[in-house]
Amino acid sequence: MQLITAVIQPGKLEDVKAALKGLGVAGMTITTVSGIGRQGGHTETYRGAVIKVETVPKVRLELLATDEDVDWIINEIVAAARTGHIGDGKIWVVPATQVIRVSTGEKGVDAIRP
């Protein structure tokens, strides 16, 4: 079992969700976040004053997958989230040593299947 975490542009969220749901991914956690990266932030004008905004809004997706499914899930996220510009995001994968569905007590792979 693996935990896949992807930080993507907010405007690509619906594309990524549609791609994953279309392939049968049962669930994911979505969080609105902000971060600092190579993009370097941006400037905004507020009441005539120029303000440097160093953090950029992003969306963080987290989903659990079996070891066998990780590569194709990552490929789908990359294909749906890519614009080809700096700031498209990052994906990382870490082992999930235990997964338990709270409502039923199911463990392991049974806990992430629909």
UniProtKB/TrEMBL annotation:
<dbReference type="InterPro" id="IPR011322">
    <property type="entry name" value="N-reg_PII-like_a/b"/>
</dbReference>
<dbReference type="InterPro" id="IPR002187">
    <property type="entry name" value="N-reg_PII"/>
</dbReference>
<protein>
    <submittedName>
        <fullName>P-II family nitrogen regulator</fullName>
    </submittedName>
</protein>
<dbReference type="InterPro" id="IPR015867">
    <property type="entry name" value="N-reg_PII/ATP_PRibTrfase_C"/>
</dbReference>
<dbReference type="Pfam" id="PF00543">
    <property type="entry name" value="P-II"/>
</dbReference>
